[in-house]
Amino acid sequence: MQLAMNADELMAYLEEVFPQVAADFAVDRLAEMEVDLRLKVSDRHLRPGGTVSGPAMFALADCAVYAIVLAMVGRKALAVTTSCSFDFMRKPAAGQDLIAKTRLLKLGRVLAVGDVLLFSEGMESPVARSTMTYSIPPK
Fold first, then answer.
1. For 36-83, what is each residue's pLDDT tens digit?
2. CA 115 → CA 93, 102, 118, 122, distances in Å?
3. How many CA atoms lie within 13 A of 63 on its CB side?
4. 3-state helix, strand, coil in the chain (%, to 5)
5. Which residues pair with 30 in a beta bridge?
6. Rounded distance, CA 121 to CA 42, Å?
7. C-alpha to C-alpha distance for 13 and 5, rounded to whole angstroms
8. What is the DSSP letter of 28?
9. What is the 3-state secondary structure (H, E, C) of 79-135?
10. What number of CA atoms fall less than 13 Å from residue 133's CA on the CB side?
11. For residues 19 and 3, what is the distance between their CA atoms, to the nearest angstrom?
12. Distances from the Cα of 92 to the Cαs of 88, 96, 98, 112, in angstroms?
C-alpha cells in the first residue's frame, strides 16, 4: 500500500478541515502505515503543576491515528474514532513537546486500527500508550 498524501499535503488538509487545532501539530516523519506527529506544547496544553494534560495527550494520539489514516486512504474527512484505550504511564517532561510514534496495525476497507506511543521530547521511555480504531466512510 502506498501513501495517498505526503506530509505537506496532509498538513494542508488538516488545516483545511480542522483549522482550530491544526497549528498545534507538525508531522516529524511520514512513511507507509506510520507517522510521527508532534504536539507543539504551549501553556494551554498544561494542567496545574506544569505537565501536559490528559486531554491534550489524548488529542495528540487521536490526531496521529487520524493523520495516518488520511495519509493512507486520502481525503476522507469523515473518518471517525470508534474505539480507544489509553494508558498513562509516566509524567511528561515539563515544557517539552510530545511526539506520537504511530503505526497502523490494520488498514481495512471500513476499519483501521492504530497503535500510538507518546514520548516527551528528550525522554527515552514513553509517557503514554493508546490503541485506537477508526471507521472509514464508504467510497
1. 999 999 999 998 888 899 999 999 999 999 999 999 999 987 889 999
2. 22, 6, 10, 21
3. 31
4. 25, 35, 35
5. 35
6. 14
7. 9
8. E
9. CEEEEEEEEECCCCCCCCCEEEEEEEEEECCCEEEEEEEEEECCCCCCCEEEEEEEE
10. 8
11. 23
12. 10, 8, 8, 28
- One-letter identity of residue 103: R
Q: Which helix (H) or strand (E) holds 138?
A: none
- Distance between alpha carbon 37 and the CA centroid of its chain, in Å? 6
Cell of 79: 473518518
Model's pTM, two decimal places?
0.95
Three cell numbers at 17? 478541515
Q: What would the pLDDT profile of 80-134 be if each residue is shown by its tens digit?
A: 999 999 999 999 987 899 999 999 999 999 999 999 999 999 999 999 999 999 9
